[in-house]
Write a structure and sequence with these properties.
Layout (H helix, E strand, L loop, with lengths): L2 H15 L2 H20 L10 E5 L4 H12 L7 E2 L6 H6 L5 E5 L3 H6 L6 E5 L4 H25 L21 H32 L2 H5 L5 H30 L8 H25 L3 H17 L15 H5 L2 H14 L4 H30 L1
Parallel strand pairs: 1-2, 1-3
Antiparallel strand pairs: 3-4
Helix pairs in contact: 1-9, 2-7, 2-9, 7-9, 7-10, 7-11, 7-13, 9-10, 9-14, 10-13, 10-14, 13-14
Main location: membrane
GO molecular function: ABC-type transporter activity
Protein name: Transport permease protein
Length: 369
Amino acid sequence: MPPRLLALIVKELLAAFRDPKARIAFIIPPLMQVFLYAYAATLEVKHASIAVLNEDWGETSRQLVTRLERSSAFAPILWLKSDREIVPVIDSQRVVAVVRIGQDFSRKVAAREPATVQVILDGRKSNTAQILNGYIGSIVTQFAIDQAMGGTDPPDISTVVERSWYNPNRDYATTMVPSLVATLTMTTVLMIMVMSVARERELGTFEQLLVSPLQPHEILIGKAVPGLIVGFVLATAIMLIVTQFFRIPMLGSPLVLYAGLFVFLLAIIGVGLFISSLVSTQQQAMLGAMVYMMPAMMLSGFTSPVQNMPDWLQPVALMNPLTHFLVIVRGVFLRDMPMALVAERIWPMLFIAVFTLTAAGWLFRRKIS
């Protein structure tokens, strides 16, 4: 490596972490967010408030209510005395759902007649309400199966046996926490990259860099290498937290994951340098990074599957490097994803990296000329 290029790399690392506040901002928040996402930003529903209106009070209905009470998904049940109380408790958001058991529920179950349980949901909390509806439906279905099995007549019922592959306990953290290797690394590296050129322009040192003996491609490499170093160190730290603290094993090869990480970082560095080359101040660079990061997170499949998006939006999601690296991270952690499948996700990221780095290099050459 030429000494002048090595000097530029060292200079960029010192510039990024010279300020103690910058060191704290680039290191502490990503590590804190690992725990925040794992424990606070969860889609699991626990201790949700529900109400029960039992108009039957037969033995069978009481057994069903007992099963609801034993579930960890629900807080202590609010008991209603009449249907007139349903609207007030929903309107005041005291409960998310009301389970209503009709007057003839026990009789119909004993007579092997269809018996229904009404669930009234607060649509203002659509995600929680949908999950609660699934919990309640699962409890009622299992209760119906047990009642049919306990009867004297042979049960006319088909039982669905669930088997969850790759995440047997369907633990939310097992899926969410490994994904943070991708999202938090992207956020930190992108912020470092977008600030690199903008900071030099504000300090007046960018012109000095342009008239130095460094060639445009050397400037580009000198700006990119610190991002690679920070990205690898941060991703490794997060992986250690995932495997050692949360005890989520990595079933695949770390080398495969690092291969995907290298190409992913190149793509993010290219995006960051491209944004940084377009702006003049650090404030503009921050805004540019935010404008990119929000759609990138939403279109990546981090919170909802890409397949659930409209058909016209799915090709846009495939132009996002985070979309592909999330598949690699989850595949390597939750199953031994073979290199052939990883390669299918690497080449789109490689194309994005080549395009963005080429565009950033063209802008550098244009500035020099």
